[in-house]
Amino acid sequence: MQQSEYNRIVRYLKGYGINCLYHITSRENWPSIRTNGLFSACQIETKGISAVYGSDKLDRYLNRHSGKRLDEYVHLSFSAKPPFRDRLVRSGRCKGEPIVLKVGLDVLKDADLRFCATDPLLEDAVIKNDLVSFLDMDLEIAGKGENLDLSTIKERQLSGATILLKDHIPFSFIQNSDELDFPESNEKGESLKQGLVMLMIDRSWDMGRPIYFHGRQYESTLGCALSLANEAISTVLLSCDEESTDYAICVMGYSDNEVESILSGSLEGKKLISGLDLMCQPAGYPRKKAKKWVSCDYSKTKADPAHALEEAATIVESWAENHHDGLRPIIINLTDARSMRDKTFPVEKAVRRLKNVNCHGGEPILLNYQISSEKDKYVAFPNEDALSVLNNMSQFLYSISSTIEDDPFGEIGFMQTDVKNKSPHIPCRAMSINGDLGKMLDALLKGTRNANPSFAANPKEQGKKVK
């Protein structure tokens, strides 16, 4: 398809409020889709993939031996509730409610496009591939979904309008994988807990400064932040491997008013990705291989951390709505703290909104990690004793960081800063200067998975909002 044709098709679809396409399938197919993407029925049989089919054996036989060969295509609809969905439910082949996959319109860009203006299973349905016929489709009916009047023959026929893509759709085109509560169990059949870890990375002009950090010279502070982010992702994936937990991972960079995902490669542009999905990425596993999921250039502007924290709150809110039994989310802000100068009030306001998000496990944990050029400065989970040795911006980071009042595994106390040579003690703040981020995150992950209610949610804050 030529670029000009693709542009016309996208404009036409968006003119009807259609911003993505939909594929309806059984939730039992999700593990295979995670790994393989979407295959046509013909390819599923050829490759020997275990799947719950949307059609029965007779339908597949007729499709295979008809001139239309519908079994060679992946079927996409214009609404989330096409007639096929009801047929799938009534057939009894689908256990529970089917899942709805949102497929980006960019899947059409390099496709050998085929489509049907009516339900393709109708005897008189015609498969076409020309632009004029596509732009003549009645998408006002096809995109209605649950608002259809199926009592009329015309609407029943046109509501099934379908796009047909040959053989395979890669998983990367599926837009809503992060919204689905999958997998619900691991290979042993154990129920999986759902968690969220978000990495916020300061990309301001100041982050372009070179820095010597943990025995290594970095060309930029941002480069150091990216190394820390990749270390954090590895820590999360180890938790997915060793525990019955699947974490959604969000990595976003912020500069000026721009906040965007900075995952690399096939993950580029995704706001959230499942930890188990991330394991399937070529650069991710096995862990012995080089790991690089995050990369970006620093900006020439001043960063706006308040805007980034507002965006973080929005993402956490959306995640919490879809994960009613989810663990306490963990948000890590990687910064040199310079970007927060003169912005303390809007940052405090955004932090209050973030901490007020209603999550099952308790308020989100905000860990502020300051990357400092002071070679001998090391702070991890500081308590109030540390305030005397913190500069003004470090004290501000301390003030907006989450309070940790319990240490169920004793790991936080082991790392906790103790500037007066007293015994480490809780409570402390989820804050660090040049600390061991991997160990700190591992302690928080273990703590949020633990059933101890005083770690899962601050008992002093339960039942009331942060003012």
Q: How many beta-strand runs?
A: 20
Q: Can you count the helices?
A: 16
Main sheet attributes: strand count, strand direction, barrel closure: 8 strands, mixed
**Which stretches are low in confidence, meaning pLDDT under 50 for 5 or more residues running?**
282-290, 456-467
Based on Cα principal axes, name the global outline.
Answer: elongated
Please state the second-level CATH architecture of the largest domain: 3-Layer(aba) Sandwich
Cα distance, first to last residue?
55 Å
Number of domains: 2
CATH superfamily of the largest domain: von Willebrand factor, type A domain
Radius of gyration: 25 Å
Instruction: Examine the coordinates and then state which fold CATH places here, giving the name of the CATH topology of the largest domain.
Output: Rossmann fold
What's the rounded overall pLDDT mean? 80
Structural class, from secondary structure content? alpha+beta
Query: Helicity level, as a percent range?
Result: 25-40%
Percentage of residues in strands: 15-25%
CATH class of the largest domain: Alpha Beta
